[in-house]
Amino acid sequence: MLKVFIVDDEKYIRDELKYFLGKRDHIQIVGETGDGQEVMELVEALEPNLVFLDIQLQNMNGLLLARKILDLKNPPYVILATAYNEYAIQGFEINVADYMVKPFSEDRLKLAIDRIDKQKNNGHKETIETQEMDFHKLCVSQNNRFILIDIGEILYIESTNQGISVYARDEVYGCNYSLKELEERFKKKRFIRTHKSYIVNIDFIDEIIPWFNYTFKVKIKGKPDIEIPVSRNYLKKFKRIVGM
């Protein structure tokens, strides 16, 4: 059984999706909402296998929601939906399962569901774009432009309620990956997760400062006012990697 949750602030879109999906015997619609503020609570409560998610919700950024959903411990598949093709590259960068442009056709929806059924039956997830290469650049955004920067130029990465910020030597960029995805992407590079909200480039750690409850903070080269926490959840691995 494929449990589906639908997020779109247009009721007729939700009704159209329910009509098409209702033709598939193995699909169960477990919930729907047009309110972006309640999405995470409902996803965690209903535990769907698949979320249809509108990018352009009135009260929430759908791309930010997609990142939060995919950062869950056992995330569902996510299919992004929008009326505009221009958001496709951002969908690729988030690594969602599929990307559909409105208005939906029944054939296109069938293709998306068949693809997810195949992945689910095979016991693994694939994404709509590049399976991992040993890639030394990261796609980031600034002023509505997408830029490829060298990973070695990144000082640290921070997750906030507004999204992911990538701090390079002289610039700050946005990024559509979650920290969990970046941690996996950089696991063979010289980066380390120090906190639920931070990943740090080891080459730019200038000083490690003892903090309370046997934790630490790290200072970044060239950024004397920046102190990044090392929480207890990541302390053991951090100390092993830096040789403390």
What does this structure look like?
With 244 residues, the protein is α/β, with parallel strands linked by helices. The protein is 29% helix and 36% strand. The strands form 5 sheets. It has a 5-stranded parallel sheet with strand order 2-1-3-6-7, with helices on both faces. A 5-stranded antiparallel sheet has the order 12-11-10-14-13. Strand 4 (56-57) and strand 5 (60-61) form a beta hairpin. The longest helix is centred in the middle third of the chain and has 17 residues, at 106-122. Keywords: Phosphoprotein. The modification 4-aspartylphosphate is found at residue 54.
Parts with pLDDT < 50 across at least 5 consecutive residues: 127-133
Question: How many structurally independent domains?
Answer: 2
- Into which percentage range does the β-strand content fall? 35-45%
What is the global morphology?
elongated
Q: Any idea of the CATH class of the largest domain? A: Alpha Beta
Q: CATH superfamily of the largest domain, called what? A: Response regulator
Count the DSSP helices.
7
Largest beta-sheet details:
5 strands, parallel
What is the tally of beta strands?
17
What integer value in Å does the Rg equal? 20 Å
The H-and-E topology, N to C, reads as EHEHEEEHEHEHEEEEEHEEEEEH
Q: Which whole number gives the mean pLDDT?
A: 85
Alpha carbon gap, first and last residue: 49 Å
Strand order in the sheet with the most strands: 2-1-3-6-7
